[in-house]
Amino acid sequence: MSQPSRYFAVPTDLLRKYDRPGPRYTSYPTVPVWTEEFGPADYEKHLANYAASDRPVSVYVHIPFCEERCTYCGCNVVIAQRQDTVERYLEYLFREIDNTAAKLGGKRRLLQLHWGGGTPTFLRIPQIDQLWNKLHTAFEFDPSAEIGIEVDPRVTSPEQLRHLGKLGFNRLSMGVQDLTPEVQVAIGRGQTVSQTEATFTLGRELGFAGINMDLVFGLPRQTLADFRRSIAQVVKWRPDRLAVYSYAHVPWVKPHQMQINEADLPTGPDKFALFATAIEQLIDAGYMPIGMDHFALPEDELAQGLDNGHLHRNFMGYTVSLSRDMVGLGVSAIGDIGGGFIQNDSRLGGYYRRLDESGWAVYRGWSLTRDDEIRREAIIAIMCRMRLDFAELDRRFGIDSESYFKDDLGHLGEFYDDGLLTRADHALVVTPLGRHFVRNIAMVFDAYLPRLTENATVKKPIFSRTV
Ligand code: SF4
């Protein structure tokens, strides 16, 4: 496979220089800014704002259950062995779906649906059907809707996968992390190469598009040679998309990570080398950097979306869905609708209690101000279009955006010097090298970041590091 000439690998000294705590910008303002003063009445107000529009919607459903907890896990998970736990959860989830549909005043056109977890395939086939049917009573599924699910190759049976395909799921995302058995043992996962290959191959046979694999660097006992071997194998399968995440070791937030022996973690230059090698191998294998830590084959819709300006970013990651409004359903789920961000309670007991009390599970949220809207647009443009057109912002918000961002623009010097950013006529343009650092560039436009980082202690940052 030839290397696309527009992209090239990243020097480790740049990775080291820009390795700073920073948000992933699946929202702006970011979650730590949101407030617990935001309650059910605020959520209803934003749902009503949205209901008054004719915009389509995206839906995220969180299924929190896993059989066991992997030691490196950073997700919101409920370890469950008993099926009645799931039955109870579905009962409450269905209540939340009904309440949402009632507030939206009819079935809204759904353009994107994602089931995430936890492990969504923890649900048995009849439970999958119940949830699927329930969602169909609440939303009008567009024939072209992007319908995705996270599948764990260790627990997803061929029957489940076939069934999901028959229902209409058309996107798959699977965790791989690293194929090396020693690493799998060290992260308490034990996923085998044959499990991963079998799930991927069946997904392809069933016609799933946009198959994504997640890789993670910086895991315990991970060596450069082993990670290279893993990536070499993964690119032979040719998933459409790959995400290469940095392992965030935050045992003060996720106490189960204390089971990981810190002496086994690659740090400093070793960790940068893992990321650098991943970038190089993926580019050599023909993958396009989409932004931050995401890569896609040139024919994949994400790569095309980047080229034609249709790429967007939401809590589900990068997408080409035309819907910006998103309903989040389930424990810990996040929504972005009618000018507000909403997060549900992340504890199962709290989720049930809040739904019993008010009909909503909202735990915190944020109503966007005009400055938030303007900055959010600038950050999305950098993260998703690799270009910030000031004329577009001027038109959209009736401002002189270069004056509006005068102070922020004064902080971009190092990005020009390092070849990550250039100036075009009335625009900022992220270079191919800069694509790996869009998060750092976006941070300049974040008005809340100085306050958030000042408040965070050095030992316990609120954001993961950018590398
Ligand atoms: S399967 Fe995924 S969500 Fe579940 S514990 Fe492991 S890493 Fe966390």
How many beta-strand segments? 19
Give average pLDDT, whole number: 92
Indicate how many domains the architecture comprises: 2
Question: Strand order across the biggest sheet?
Answer: 9-10-8-7-6-5-4-1-13
User: Which class of the largest domain in CATH terms?
Assistant: Alpha Beta
Give the assembly state of these chains: single chain
| Molecules bound to protein | iron/sulfur cluster
Q: Specify the CATH architecture of the largest domain.
A: Alpha-Beta Horseshoe
Coarse shape: globular
Q: How far apart lie the N and C ends?
A: 27 Å
| Poorly predicted runs of 5 or more residues | 1-5
Largest sheet: 9 strands, mixed
Helix content: 25-40%
CATH homolog superfamily of the largest domain: tm_1862 like domain
* Rg calc: 22 Å
Structural class: alpha/beta
Q: Into which percentage range does the β-strand content fall?
A: 15-25%
Q: What is the number of helices?
A: 18
CATH topology of the largest domain: pyruvate-formate lyase- activating enzyme
Give an account of the 3D structure.
- With 467 residues, this protein is α/β, with parallel strands linked by helices.
- The chain folds into two domains: 30-327, pyruvate-formate lyase- activating enzyme (Alpha-Beta Horseshoe), CATH 3.80.30; 369-454, Arc Repressor Mutant, subunit A (Orthogonal Bundle), CATH 1.10.10.
- Helices cover 39% and strands 21% of the residues.
- It has 18 helices and 19 strands.
- It has helices spanning 12-17, 40-51, 83-104, 125-138, 158-167, 181-186, 193-205, 224-237, 268-284, 301-308, 348-358, 370-385, 390-397, 401-404, 406-409, 413-417, 438-443, 449-455, and strands at 57-63, 65-66, 78-79, 108-117, 139-151, 171-177, 209-217, 241-246, 288-291, 294-296, 312-314, 317-319, 326-329, 334-337, 340-344, 362-367, 387-389, 421-424, 427-430.
- The strands form five sheets. It has a nine-stranded mixed β-sheet with strand order 9-10-8-7-6-5-4-1-13, sandwiched between helices. Strands 14-15-16 form a three-stranded antiparallel β-sheet, with helices on one face.
- A hairpin with a 2-residue loop joins β9 and β10 (294-296).
- It is globular and about 60 Å long.
- Residues 1-5 have low confidence and may be disordered.
- Bound molecules: iron/sulfur cluster.
- The site of iron/sulfur cluster has 11 residues, from loops.
- Iron/sulfur cluster (SF4) is lined by residues 66, 69-70, 73, 75, 77, 117-119, 152, 175.
